[in-house]
Amino acid sequence: MVGIGEKLKEARLKKNLTLTDVENITKIRARYIQALEEENFKILPGNVYIKGFLKTYAKLLELDEKELIAAYEETEPQVEEIQPQPIKKYSPEQNQGPNRKYIKLILGIIAIATLLGLQKLYVSFNEGPGQDPSKQPNIGIENNIPGSDNEQNNGNELPSDFEDEQNSEEEQILDKLVLTIEILDQNCWVRVYGDGEIVYEKTMAQGETAVIEAEEKITFTLGNAGAAKIQLGNKELGTLGNKGQVITQSFTLENYEEELAQLGF
User: Fold this and answer.
1) 83 inside domain
2) pTM score, whole prediction
3) How far apart are the first and last CA of the chain?
4) What is the mean pLDDT of the chain?
């Protein structure tokens, strides 16, 4: 793309502006300004942002923005946005399997044994030395009489608090990576790699939401990090950067907990 970079640089030097001066005025990072002048477009986030940078920079230098953008489009291949494929919503029920059922049963038996032990301890405490057991309050020992309905219920039903705790634990276990991206108040260019392949690339508008799944590793780049709210599985991460900031973040199924901890979650 001969001519565009040189034209920008010459106009900047005529106005006695440094790269830092341009960054302070346009709010475009100095390394992106330098990339435009060197025509090194590969390090820039995408066609939409390149055209926006050219337009803003041209206005500052009092150059014809339409002419610069047209020249760029003629000499640089335009990458079409990849339309997202329909992806099933993540559901905690997908994580349930035979192993978790056995674990739930074992934990249930432990909980019941603990309750019976506490009940026995309570009875022993109230039947202290010298007291008549017949005068002690009825605390429901008969509920455990062999063959009674209550004994059958104790063997098959778990306390509701215990079930809620188990459901909470199951929701925290992931068998795949599920990334949710929600755009808040500005457009944001997004590219997502799932297991090494591009599965999503788009300039998302305000209010749009995308859900992307991967089996082992997911990597995403945000062109405007402050405008995108991120969620991994059921863990809300919020925004991972400032508005106008370009970030790239990766999560793996094997080490996602450590990777979240490094981000402060």
Assistant:
1) no
2) 0.38
3) 44
4) 79
